[in-house]
Amino acid sequence: MKLEMICTGEEVLAGQIVDTNAAWLGNQLMDNGFEMHRRTTVGDRLTDLVDVFQERSTFADIILVNGGLGPTADDLSAQAMADAMGVELEENLAWRETLVLWAKERNVELNPKNLKQALLPKGAIVVDNPVGTACGFRVKLNRSWFFFTPGVPHEYKKMVIEQFIPFVKSQTNLQTKVEVTKLLSLGIGESDMAGRLEKLTWPEGITLGYRSYMPYLELKLIARDVSKEEQDKAILQATKVLGDGIVARNKGTLAAEIHELLTQREKTLTIAESLTGGEICSQLVAFSGSSHYLKHAIVAYCNEAKVALLDVSEQTILDQSEVSLACVAQMAAGAACTYSKVAESDFSIATSGIAGPAGGTVDNPVGTVVIAVKTGDQVVCQKIKFSAKRSRNHIRDLTTAIAFDMLRRAILGLSPIADYSYIERIESMVYSMKECRDLVTK
Amino acid sequence: MKLEMICTGEEVLAGQIVDTNAAWLGNQLMDNGFEMHRRTTVGDRLTDLVDVFQERSTFADIILVNGGLGPTADDLSAQAMADAMGVELEENLAWRETLVLWAKERNVELNPKNLKQALLPKGAIVVDNPVGTACGFRVKLNRSWFFFTPGVPHEYKKMVIEQFIPFVKSQTNLQTKVEVTKLLSLGIGESDMAGRLEKLTWPEGITLGYRSYMPYLELKLIARDVSKEEQDKAILQATKVLGDGIVARNKGTLAAEIHELLTQREKTLTIAESLTGGEICSQLVAFSGSSHYLKHAIVAYCNEAKVALLDVSEQTILDQSEVSLACVAQMAAGAACTYSKVAESDFSIATSGIAGPAGGTVDNPVGTVVIAVKTGDQVVCQKIKFSAKRSRNHIRDLTTAIAFDMLRRAILGLSPIADYSYIERIESMVYSMKECRDLVTK
């Protein structure tokens, strides 16, 4: 079965947005054992749309079309499909009802632009959009089923998962049972990982896939008709050869893993961020229920704030700078029991460093980062050095991920400091909470 | 002139990487007054490559092909082009020399895989790659010039800028001057905006484009051979009809606008976040130099932290809950002069609310948000209500954007509270800093 995608929109073609919908669909298909065959991106011109619909209709079995279902004049997907099929647009009464209801709920008046969204090629089958006003639909032309979805990512994704993938499955007699295990890795490059994994023998039916989304690299073990036991064996051998580099299983980010671990174990967390500037906290707050474990976070971006809000010793900063193990340890300790005004948290995380591009010194060039994790009565910290060629955001993202991994390991009772392939550790240290307090009062 | 792009590689098609090379080219072309006509993405199969080369060769004038020039077995672009043209591959002696020199410099031995990179379709014209071993080339088939570039981003970009764009220019006599003005909007829907703008008369040569990336909607005024005066008139009439909804010009986000305003005016900022959980701070810290104005941020996620770290009155929270104007005003005041341990900041922002999906109450259902901005001796705050159907992240993103806009308006000396089309305001209030302090001590 040949599956294709047609992406529409000047903004996608002209690069005003990066087409993440396209990559996302490729991944969804892979996870379900299907393969994308071709992707075509065109703008908003009616003739270009008609051309591409007619052309691909003789090659593909199923084509997902993304975008162009909105209310504005440049949303022409339905018109173009009607033209390609040689039929008229007609108003879909059920969808018109949906629109009328939608407007009523919001107490707004329906204008002709909104109502345009109920005009579909004659004979089209509606594909419900439970979260928006753009109506999805499908039609058949020549060899192909065309499946139309809106470009708005959350509407599109919901329709793909709930309706498109089941439709694809219904159109094939593929009986293969496909299961995908995703291993989240940190600090290993793709060629390094592939090199290690290709040396191993894999059970029949297992294929490997990689997805790179900084700072992570995800390894997919795609199992087609493979027994649970064989799958477990495959996962085990991958985990063994990749060591500390594998940081989670079937989780998209370490924040998701931390959220689950802290929730399950009913432990509390506090955060003190300098370099990462709120990113650690923000990634956790994205999850509903994070209020159960997250007490507070302090972004002490200037040194004055580190001293005033986190009780870091001024002398430490003068002697060793803010990019020192002693400073970040005191930040973690300070966050955990700020002014003793709040009860001490079970865990805390602290970060400091030079994200660049400016601000580097001889002792601490751009890319130098210190991270501390407070666990029980200990504060474990390390200083690492990223290549100065990495961008500011990349350095912040990597630091966030490593801080989460130190915390993850601490929660699991492992040593918080791990060895990652491409991350260079300069030094590490373990302080007791008492030592941190003593540093402050010195 | 019809310009197209062909992207090759399983990893691009299957979504293992997001194709940023494609978006980048679209932008480069637009900045140079050219337009991309179509983009086709295929995998690594030889037959698929041959098919797409032959097919597009009768439609396009110039086609940039990206990827598949490397040394490995799945790098088949040169072979596929030779097949499509019905010619043989032949070794390019000059490029072989380059490879020999490259190996010599690095003191490595050339293997057959490396030497494969000097095999080009017979008759191909070399396009120099000054930063890598993959040889670019161009050939003509039917109507089209095919221009081959490696997938490695920094090699690709160098070749596009230094060789592809000049080549495109040499093939056309296009003299059009294209200028794009981007107006960032907040709180206006796309159909609403289009409805207002389409009623106006636009100068010849001006076209409108929209780009939606939540929580923003960007309006582009694309001017082809339009005088500066006429462009300014067009911008003015768009700004007039969209009112408070236009929040920045030629900036991708309000965070970028705030970063510039605070930097230019040398004002300081502090932040107290509950609902947004570090996102406001994190968006600013993404910019290098934010340390010049950003003193600290406190994420007081639980009420205990609001009291302990921001001096919010316990009684206020008991009487009016943490989703109240009085609470968020005290948070802003508290952030600005935490414990008087740090000097009072010029501005501060505070947020609180119910992002959901859980946590709603009768008085404060999911989607209820309070935001305060401290400017000088005043704390201006408002309570707004988003649809509970919006996702947790969407509510946090919108809240972040509105908080930034209140701050932006305060910095510019405008009233911090603006009217946005689709955002419902429940109440608003202005406290003096003294009133906030009095609330605490009551």
From TrEMBL, chains A, B:
Any Pfam family matching the protein: CinA
Gene3D superfamilies named among the record's database cross-references: CinA-like, MoaB/Mog-like domain
Chain segments annotated as coiled-coil in the UniProt record: none
Domain MoaB/Mog: 4-171
PANTHER family given in the database record: NICOTINAMIDE-NUCLEOTIDE AMIDOHYDROLASE PNCC, NMN AMIDOHYDROLASE-LIKE PROTEIN YFAY
Similarity comment: family membership: Belongs to the CinA family.
HAMAP family registered for this protein in UniProt: CinA_B
Protein name: CinA-like protein
Organism name: Psychromonas arctica
Organism placement in taxonomy: Bacteria, Pseudomonadati, Pseudomonadota, Gammaproteobacteria, Alteromonadales
